[in-house]
Specification:
290 residues; mainly alpha; two-stranded antiparallel sheet; 1% strand
Amino acid sequence: MSQAETVRRVSPLWTLGLLRSELLTTFRRWRTLALLGVLAAVPVLVGIAVRIETGDGSSAGGGGGGGGPAFISQITNNGLFLVFTALAATLPFFLPMAIGVVAGDAVAGEANAGTLRYLLVAPAGRSRLLLTKYATVMVFCLAATLVVAVSALITGALLFPLGDLTTISGTRIGFGEGLARALLIALVVAVSLIGVAALGLFVSTLTNSGIAAMATTVGLLITVQILDQIPQLHALHPYLFSHYWLSFADLMREPVYWDDLMKNLGLQALYAAVFGSAAWARFTAKDITA
């Protein structure tokens, strides 16, 4: 058997091994655990704050509809609303910041540690290594979102009653359906972060400094968030990756409003394709010296 045939035969198994190694390395880092810890703490703090504010658990306000923080007025009636509130509270900054840190360090961190050349000696090649890095970041997107959702669900169950809930449209749905929608919302939020993940990965291929890549990614994230709040730039807003993030609230309508949700998913796919391709073009042509 020739060396080329051997490489072709072992490369799929090697790729799976590399992915497993990347996942273990990422989730064993103290930085990653600290990020997940902060994300898990946000729903707890929100739940405790609402509980203290309402005292005996009576409603903190009217049953206002709408997306984002409007869910907070329903938490005392049903702890499941803490899941929606926590995701709305973490999505604008905490979740994408965590993704930016992990994605920004994906390639630049290896270069800074002097391990990138060692990884490229293996038969997977640059394209497959980059794809493995991106897959690891996307797994972290899902894990981070689920950490927020599960923490919020547990906190909501401990501090507030659970049961049937009222949608934004005013209709009633059972707790089981509400839980299913909460899971669907968490998945949508995770997918909403793949654009940031691709952007961070691209930035990571531009430098050999993990800190610089992380700082640049987070800086771009903050810049985009600021641009999205300037009314004079309204024509630009639909093209910013953060513009439709809170459209997940439309999953709590009856019937579900799909327009903004599909725009969000399409926009994230576009960002992933553009910056993923840019990262591939840069990484495959990059002179690896570390």
